Structures are given as C-alpha cells and as structure tokens.
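Appendix C: a fully annotated inverse folding record. The material below is reproduced so that readers can follow the format used throughout the book. The structure is listed first as tokens, followed by the designed sequence.
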C-alpha cells in the first residue's frame, strides 16, 4: 500500500469515528405535559406529567412536580412512595401517581399567587428529564355590589383579578371624571376588592347610573352593573365567578365603551 493510499484510509477512518461520536443517542424516556393552561378564578386545575419509555426496564429514582423557586409539591421516590407538600401553595392541592405512567398535581381554587411555571422532573436509569407547564389566571371578579344613596351611587367589585378601574356613566354621559372616592384592598392570594363612589347627588329624571369594571391590561370591560334610581340594582355581565358570556346587548355596549375610552 503506497503512502497516498495509507493517508486516504486514515482520513476516512477519522471521518467515520467523528460521525459516530456526533450521532445523537436514542431517546429512552420522555416526559409530556401541556405547555400552558389558562384557569378561571376559583376553579381547580390538574397538571399531568406523563412518562413514555422506549425501552424496557425503566427504573425511576425520583419523580416530582416542583415550583419554579425549587419548592416541591409532590414527589415519588425509588420505592414508588409518593409524598405531598401542601404547605408550599396558597390553596389546597392533591396529587396522584400511576406507577411508571403519570404523576398528577391538582390545584384547588387557583389564586393569583399560584400563577407561574410548574416543573415536572425525572431521574431514572434511562436518563434525566424535565418539562414545564405555565399556569395563568383568567380575568375575573366574584361579585358586583351596586348601591345608591342621596350622596350618590357606589359600586363595589369583590375578588377582582387583575387590577381594574371603575368607569361611571349616567345615561349616555360619561361621568367618570366627576369627583369620586375610590378604594382598593388586597386580599390574601392577591385578589382585589375595588370600591368607587361618585360624589354626585341623585336627581330624579337624570337617568340611572352604570358602573363598568375596566381591566387596563386587557383593554376591555369585564362587567357592567346598573344602579337604578329606584329598586334593586341589576348586574349585567358574567356570573358571580367572572366566567361566562356577557349578554349580547350589554356586550355590544361594553365594546362601544371600550372603543370610546381608547379614542
């Protein structure tokens, strides 16, 4: 074998070794979760971490749901024993485990503080894996409480998320700029109670007041509450927990209000 042939063979051997070293290793185990979830206020949500194995003989050393700050919520050890850590979430939680198949975490009555990333982590004889689910809270409120007195109308919206503002209307007139008193109280879990009172004496025949809850972060009204001159006030909008559709007439009205406010 001449020198040129020897050099060619050596070169091809080097290329073959390089290619074999760069070929990806076959995936032996995989974790699957939903990328993100939008949860209605005060509702429960279940995060599922599914295990898929592509080779027999999977041994799980440790499997866990973990908060982004590193706090454990539930985990399974090498013997298959599951533990929960309920003190690490503001609301109640539950966990369930199907051996070598799935670890589920259920958050009961999700609160604003529970938004964020949840990590499912696995250590096994087939490698280390990690996947993430992001939980977000849908805008909502618990209850609208309109009232009226000789001093003017008042509206209170309880357990609001995210932060909002109260806009006032009387008939076709926007009276939001009139003198008013507003307060905000933060509850545990970061829900807000927002109260707004107009310093505007009621005059018979001027028309009923309407208070609308504006959410700046979404650029839309969440709900509207009518304060009649006489009788019981009526709430127009989603149901008590803030979920559901606004009636077609009031939905159109709120869209028009949103447009006017943005102009």
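Designed amino acids, in order:
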């Amino acid at each position: 074998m001449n020198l040129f042939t020897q050099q060619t063979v050596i070169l091809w051997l080097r290329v073959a070794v390089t290619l074999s070293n760069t070929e990806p290793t076959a995936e032996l185990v995989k974790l699957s979760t939903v990328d993100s979830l939008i949860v209605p206020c005060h509702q429960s949500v279940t995060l599922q971490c599914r295990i898929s194995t592509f080779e027999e003989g999977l041994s799980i050393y440790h499997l866990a749901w973990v908060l982004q700050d590193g706090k454990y919520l539930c985990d399974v050890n090498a013997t298959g024993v599951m533990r929960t850590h309920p003190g690490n979430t503001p609301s109640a939680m539950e966990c369930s485990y199907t051996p070598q198949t799935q670890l589920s975490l259920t958050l009961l009555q999700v609160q604003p503080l529970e938004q964020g990333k949840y990590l499912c982590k696995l250590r096994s004889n087939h490698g280390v894996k990690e996947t993430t689910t992001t939980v977000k809270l849908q805008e909502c409120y618990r209850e609208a409480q309109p009232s009226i007195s000789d001093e003017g109308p008042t509206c209170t919206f309880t357990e609001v998320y995210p932060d909002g503002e109260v806009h006032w209307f009387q008939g076709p007139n926007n009276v939001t700029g009139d003198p008013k008193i507003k307060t905000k109280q933060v509850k545990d879990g970061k829900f807000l109670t927002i109260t707004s009172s107009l310093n505007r004496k009621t005059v018979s025949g001027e028309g009923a007041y309407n208070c609308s809850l504006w959410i700046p972060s979404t650029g839309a009204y969440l709900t509207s509450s009518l304060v009649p001159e006489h009788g019981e006030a009526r709430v127009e909008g989603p149901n008590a927990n803030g979920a559901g559709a606004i009636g077609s007439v009031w939905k159109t009205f709120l869209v028009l209000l949103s447009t006017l406010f943005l102009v």
